[in-house]
């Protein structure tokens, strides 16, 4: 199945007219070399609402459902939210990984371990440079889980949502919806070595309360620590599910939060 999915440049090409229809432009925000090939990285802004939303996908190249679900959301759903929100969208953070359908980016490293670190890579630098003057109410970070894939889907809440009972209630509502689709939710007390509350991993707002956030080098944690994002929600779908199911869940997750946005 993976061999039949579109590559990076093909997916970007399909998104360009989508953003044009939304009165927006998919803009090159930087580039880097992979071997001898110059690889551009793209982002777009859309909408004129008061709440600032960041959506990112494709940090890990083998997690194909996230960028593909985002593409479907952009084609069919984003237009309904343009008056309520202003969106910043980075559809694929790891172009070479997405093209090769492998986890790692340039330097053959996991990019989501190097955001905010001195020894980071071009993709990390380009993304952080682009976002450095932004302030987001909510960052929706789209991922899939390959390590815990047989255990089910789960959610990270980082920043202002990590101790908010109302946000937890909404997270559980979405996880319950996943269960109703016949898809497992990972409710283990620890996921990837971190404390979990029935499928939600809370990560505190700052390094003083949770020093592990800065050490992890994840994009979401980095943006919270830098004061760029107030809150990050990361959905991890299980790659043990069918691609169709993962696409459905990821797209539904974006719509869910935009329809119930709080805080």
TrEMBL record:
GO terms for molecular function: hydrolase activity, acting on ester bonds; metal ion binding. Its cofactor is Zn(2+). The keyword Coiled coil does not apply. Keywords: Hydrolase, Metal-binding, Zinc. Residues 51-148 form the Succinylglutamate desuccinylase/Aspartoacylase catalytic domain. InterPro entries: AstE_AspA_cat. Pfam families: AstE_AspA_cat. This is Succinylglutamate desuccinylase/Aspartoacylase catalytic domain-containing protein.
């Amino acid at each position: 199945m993976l061999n039949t999915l579109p590559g990076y440049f093909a997916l970007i090409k399909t998104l360009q007219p989508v953003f044009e229809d939304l009165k927006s432009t998919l803009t090159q925000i930087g580039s880097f070399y992979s071997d001898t090939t110059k690889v551009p990285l793209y982002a777009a802004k859309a909408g004129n609402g008061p709440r600032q939303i960041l959506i990112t996908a494709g940090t890990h190249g083998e997690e194909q459902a996230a960028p593909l679900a985002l593409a479907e959301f952009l084609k069919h759903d984003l237009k309904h939210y343009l008056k309520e929100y202003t969106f910043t969208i980075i559809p694929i953070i790891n172009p070479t990984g997405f093209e090769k359908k492998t986890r790692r980016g340039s330097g053959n490293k996991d990019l989501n371990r190097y955001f905010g670190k001195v020894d980071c890579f071009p993709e990390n630098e380009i993304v952080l440079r682009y976002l450095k003057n932004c302030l987001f109410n909510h960052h929706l970070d789209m991922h899939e889980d390959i390590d815990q894939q047989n255990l089910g889907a789960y959610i990270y809440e980082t920043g202002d949502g990590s101790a908010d009972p109302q946000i937890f209630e909404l997270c559980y509502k979405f996880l319950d919806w996943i269960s109703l689709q016949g898809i497992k939710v990972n409710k283990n007390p620890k996921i990837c070595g971190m404390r979990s509350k029935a499928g939600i991993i809370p990560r505190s707002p700052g390094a003083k309360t949770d020093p592990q956030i800065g050490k992890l080098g994840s994009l979401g944690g980095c943006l919270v620590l830098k004061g760029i994002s107030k809150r990050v929600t990361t959905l991890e779908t299980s790659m043990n599910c069918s691609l169709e199911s993962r696409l459905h869940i990821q797209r539904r997750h974006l719509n869910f939060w935009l329809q119930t946005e709080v805080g």
